[in-house]
Amino acid sequence: MTCTFRCGSACDHPVPNPTDNEYFGDVVTAALSRRSVIKGSAAGALLLSAGAALAPTPAAASSMAGMPKLPTAHGPSKPSHGRGHHGGVDSLDFTPVAPNKLDQLSVPKGYHQAVVAAWGDPVTPDAPRFDFERQTAHAQSKQFGYNNDYLMVLPLGRGPRGSERALMVINHEYTDEILMFRGWKDGAGAPIEQLRIAMAAHGMSVVEIERVGRTGRWRLARSGRRPFNRRFTATTPFLVTGPAAGHALLKTKADPSGRRVLGTLNNCSGGVTPWGTTLHGEENINQYFEASAPVDPAYVDAFKRYGLPIAANSGKFWSRVDERFDLAKHPNEANRFGWVVEIDPHDPDAVPRKRTMLGRFKHEGATVTIAKDGRAVVYLGDDEKFDYLYKFVSTDRQRKGNSAAAHRHNMDLLDHGTLYVAKFTGDGSDDGQYDGTGEWIKLCTDKESFVPGMSVAEVLINTRLAADKMGPTKMDRPEDVERNPVTGSVYMACTNNDSRTAAQVDEANPRATNKHGHIVEFDEEHQDAAARTFTWRLFLVCGDPEDPSTYFGGYDKSKVSPISCPDNVAFDGSGNLWISTDGNALGSNDGLFATATRGPERGHVKQFLTVPIGAETCGPLVSEDQRTVFVAVQHPGELDGGTPETPKSHWPFGDQPRPAVACVWKD
Ligand code: FEO
Ligand code: CA
Ligand code: CA
Predict the structure, then answer these.
(1) CB of 656 closer than 8 Å to CB of 648
(2) Following DSSP, what letter does each residue of 142-176 receive, concatenated?
(3) The pLDDT of residue 247
(4) Which of 15-24, 95-104, 251-260, 299-308 is predicted least confidently?
(5) Which residues are paired to 380 by β-bridges?
(6) What's the superkingdom here (predicted)?
C-alpha cells in the first residue's frame, strides 16, 4: 500500500538508472580483492574505527547568523555556541523509547505531546469544519492537507492576546485515497470530486500557531486575523524562474510561455533560507502522470530515466480532471514538475516559484547554508536507488538585513549559480574506515553547460541524464542532506537500497541488499560550503546493533538504539544530529533518534520517539535547547488492508487515522 500511494511503486519498478557509471567496486575491486575481510564487507563486518572528533568551527556557526530559529521552551532562541544548555556539551539527557508496535506517539518519560494540526483542520480563517463523511475539494483547499512531511516554524512574535506566535510551513506530500474515502478502488471509477479532493490535499500549508501559555505546547492560533494562513495545492499558479524557464520543453498547450505552471506535487522535504523563505522538493512526480497511448518517441529516454510512463498506462487518472496529466497528449507537462519550489510564507500574495537552476529530479529536500564568502549553497538529494547527490552554489552573495532591496536581491539568488553532482572516492578499506575524498562535478552554470551535447536548459530539465554522463557516485537513496550549524560537517541520509548487489558495493555504499541504510558525514574543504572537494566517512551504518555490518560512529554498540532507514535529519543547538526514519525494517514502528556527532558520545544513538502503526516520521524540528520537538506523523495506518471500514491505526483521535503534526515538550 505504501508503495502504491507514496511513490507509485517506484521500489517495484526496474531501477531507473541503467547507466554504467563505474562503481567504486569496478575501479578498485582488483585492489580490494586482496583484502578479503574488506571485500567481504557486503555480508560481513564493517571494521570501522571511530571517526576523528571534529573540532567545532565557530565560523560555521556564525555563517548561519540570520537563519530563523524555532523558539525554545524558555523564550526566544539565543545564538548557539556549540554547548548543550543542560548538562554540558552534546548532552541528550532522555531515556530512550523502546522499539514497539504501539498505535501511539511514544515519547520519553518526562515529555508531553499534543497534536498541533491534523489533516482537515482549518487553515484559512473561512475554512469549513472537517467532515470525513462529506469531504469536498472546496473545503480541502482551505483545510490542512494530507500526509504532512517537511515542517518549519518561523517565529512571528506576540499575538493579539500576548501569546507567542509562529508560522508553521508544512508539506503535504501525497494522498492515501484508500484511507481518505470509503469504497475507494482506483481513480478510474472514483467520483471526479474525490480526485479533486486529492489534488487539493497536496501541496503546502502555511498556518499560524501559538504557544499555550508558558508551556512547550503549540496549537493552531485561534484568534486574530491570521493573514499569512494559506494553502498551496495541485492547482495553485506557480512562476517558473531560472535558466530553463520558457524553454520549449516546458511549453504546453495551456501555457505557451513555459513559465506558468499549475500546482506543485509530492512535496517531500525542504529547507529554510536565511532570507526567510522556504524550499520544498517535488519528489515522486512520475506517479501523477499517465499515458492514454505510447508517448512521443523523442521523450522515451528521459521519461524512462524519471520513471514516467512511456506506453499506454494508467496512473491516478487525474487526466479525468485535467487532460494535462495525459503524457500521450501533453508530454511537456511532466517536465514542469520535479523542481524545488520557493515560497515566501511572510507574503500571502507572493507568487510561488519553481527554481529551475536547482535541477529537475526526484528532489527529497533542499537545505541551505551560506558559504564563507556569503554565497548561498543548497544541498539536494535525488531519492531513488542508485541516484545522486547534488549541490548548488549561487553566483551572488546573500544580502543581509530586512530591507525590500535586500529581499528582492535574495529572491534572485537561486536563479544564478552552478549546479554540481557528487563523486565519492574511497581510499580503500585497509585503513579500517569507510572513508575517502570527494569532488563536486560541474554540470552547468546559468550561462554555460559542461555536459557534452546538452544545453544549460537541457541539463536542468533532464538533470539525471546530464549527471549520468559525468560519472557521479550512485548512492543508496540519498534523502535529506544537511549541514551541522555547529561543526560545519554535512550529513546525508541514505535510506536503503535492497537492489545493490555485492558486485555494486563501493566504499560509500558498502552493503549489498542495504535494507537499513546509512549516514555519510562529509567535510567540505576548509569547511567552506562552496568548496569543490571534500573528505567523507560513514557515520552510521544502520540496523540491529547486533548485526556485525552495523556501525555507530565508533560508539559501544551494546548501548545504542536500533535504527533502520534514516530519512530526514535535523540539528539542535548543540549540533546533535536528529534522525527520522521511514520504513523501519527491524519490525518496529518508525521513529525519531538523536546522537551526538562529536566527543565521547559520538554515535550514541538514542530513540526519542516512535510514531503510530503504519506511520513514517517526517519533518523533525528540534529547538536549540532540545526541549521542544515538532514531528510530522505521516500516513498513520498505511498498511495493507487498511480502509475506513478496517482502519489499522486510530491515531490521533480514536477514529479514522489522520496524518498530523505533533509537538513534544519537556516538563
Ligand atoms: Fe518522500 Fe524520499 O521521501
Ligand atoms: Ca577507507
Ligand atoms: Ca522523505
Answers:
(1) no
(2) TB--SSEEEEEEEEEEE-TTS-EEEEEEEEE----
(3) 98
(4) 15-24
(5) 390
(6) Bacteria
CA distance 250 to 339: 12
Cis amide leading into 96 (omega within 30): no
Nearest-CA residue for atom 1 of ligand 1 = 268
Nearest ligand, CA 174? 1
Distance 479 CA to ligand 3 centre (A): 6
Tell me the pLDDT of the chain averaged across its residues: 89
Q: Is the CB of 616 under 6 A from ligand 1?
A: no
pLDDT of 429 over the 90 cut: no
567 CA distance to ligand 3 middle (Å): 5
The C-alpha atoms of residue 95 and residue 168 are separated, in whole angstroms, by: 28
> Which strand (E) or helix (H) includes residue 389?
strand 389-397
Question: 265 CB contacts (<8 Å, ≥6 apart)?
Answer: 202, 234, 282, 285, 288, 337
337 CA to centre of ligand 1 in angstroms: 15
Question: Strand order of the sheet with strand 237-241?
Answer: 260-262, 237-241, 353-355, 340-343, 278-282, 267-272
Which ligand 1 atom sits nearest the alpha carbon of residue 149? 1
Give yes or no for a contact between 493 and 480, defined as CB atoms under 8 angstroms apart: yes
Residue 479 Cβ contacting ligand 1 at under 6 Å: yes
- For 575-592, how does the pLDDT look when each residue is reduced to its tens digit (9 = 90+)? 999 999 999 999 999 999
Do residues 319 and 285 make contact, with C-beta atoms less than 8 angstroms apart?
no
CA-based nearest residue to 223, from 172, 168, 160, 181: 160
What was the pLDDT predicted at 44? Answer: 27
**How far is Cα of residue 581 from the mean position of the Cα atoms in its chain?**
11
Residue 404 buriedness (CB in 10 A; 0-12 / 13-18 / 19+): exposed
pLDDT digits (tens, 9 = 90+) for 364-409: 999 999 999 999 999 999 999 999 999 999 999 999 998 999 999 9
Ligand 1 binding pocket includes 364 (Cβ within 6 Å): yes
Q: What contacts 69, CB < 8 A, 6 or more positions away?
A: 77, 155, 624
Percentage helix, strand, coil for the chain under 3-state DSSP, each rounded to 5: 15, 30, 50
